[in-house]
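Here is one chain, start to finish.
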Amino acid sequence: MKYTDKIYHKVSDFSYSKLKKDNTYKILGQDYKVIEKRDDTQNGLRAYVFAPVIKGKVDTSQLLIGYAGTDPFSLNDIRTDLQLPIHHNTNNLKINNHYKNLKNSTIHKKYNTIKDKNDLFSFSSVLYTKALIGDRTPAKFAPSQMDESDAFTESVKKKYPDSEIHPIGHSLGAFLAQYNLIKHNLDNGTTFAAPNVYHSFTGDFKKEIDNGVYDSKIRNIGHFDDPIVNSGLKMSFFSGLRLSYI
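Its structure:
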């Protein structure tokens, strides 16, 4: 089926909601089933994989991954936003296997160890609390939303190797969508008011961005008075990512 900007925009809105895995939702008159889900209450990550239902059958040939954006009332999301400028991609992501398992659609505990790549605020607050109360048991930490979305997206791609996967998101969710499109070479993605992802990459990824490899794969839609888009406009130009206005 053919996806439109209206569908992408609606899916990005839906991704803010608490949806249930295996439930079907009507989006602009079309039924979509949530076939995969990740809701981590420890770092605020929320992402869904939507598949259209055609004549009563789930069509996994063209999947949409919707990443939730910033909830202004979520301390986890605000902390994640603060880490975006200093987040860096790693080719060998050290993260507990619990986060790679798609069966773990909802997560209420921390599973990373001190040897894993952890969310900076989770790392510091856990160590501070343990030191304050004199707790010497091994600490557990949460990964950042960026790194957990990386693990989640990689697992989705492995489970559905023959599917087109289109990442979508708004604000923080747009950052996660663009980041994972580049990291995992996903299919065309449309984002809304995306912060710039260029600084998150190094080496070959950065060269590919500079050489325009992703120019035709990512479209970021904003509006002229959007402070997030406008603050990253120059960087968006140099990163080669297209910017459209509405």
